[in-house]
Amino acid sequence: MNKKLKISFYSFTSCEGCMMNILIWLYKNFDFFKDNFEINNMKLLTPKTSNTKEDIAIIEGAISSREQQRKVKEIRKKAKIVIAIGTCAITGAPSNNRNFLKKDEEIKKYIKKFNQLEKVKSIKEAIKVDYEVTGCPVIIEEFEKIMHNLVSKHAQSY
Ligand code: SF4
Within 10 A of 121 (CB to CB), how many other CB atoms are there? Predict the structure, then answer.
């Protein structure tokens, strides 16, 4: 068994502020991170995408288009553990504000034109989520606690 956990970071519809906070955490905890994790995907660090199986997928943002819905389902299939981070991912807000607008013909035209979903979804409305970390931006102490717990569990398994 690989001693390092293969981890990916994904962003959907959001301001990407949670991922910036994760990046700062990663920088401050670089030794812990490099000793225990191997990055599979992270758009902020590398444009390359890998479709290999991964231990952990960290996801920020809401699901607003058909393409995002397809992609998040793919992520769920290849990741053992999915962690939704931030209010966008957990509740869909604020991106889901458009769900509450009266859908006149003009809005419907744009939803269709840009291949958007009729309603913006949270990550847990789109797929099964194993852990949630709330906050806007994400509460980094809670995120850190989960990371440490997952590393301990993984260490006990080999
Ligand atoms: S939860 Fe807040 S900080 Fe995080 S991506 Fe959404 S809007 Fe940005």
Answer: 22
- Binding site membership of 14 for ligand 1 (Cβ less than 6 Å): yes
Q: How many domains does the chain have?
A: 1
Domain region containing 100: 5-153
User: Comparing 34-38, 68-72, 89-93, 100-104, which segment has the lowest mean pLDDT?
Assistant: 100-104
Please tell me if the CB atom of residue 88 comes closer than 6 angstroms to any atom of ligand 1.
Answer: yes
**Is 103 within the bounds of a domain?**
yes
Please, is 81 exposed, middle or buried when counting C-beta atoms within 10 Å of its C-beta (0-12, 13-18, 19+)?
middle
Give the mean model confidence (pLDDT) for residues 61-65: 97
- Residue 18, ligand 1, Cβ within 6 A: yes
**What digits encode the pLDDT tens for the residues 17-30?**
999 999 999 999 99
Q: Going by DSSP bridges, is the β-strand pair 54-60/37-42 parallel, antiparallel, or unpaired?
A: unpaired
Q: How many angstroms separate the CA atoms of 114 and 158, rounded?
A: 47
Write the CATH number for 19.
3.40.50.700
Atom from ligand 1 closest to the CA of residue 14 = 5
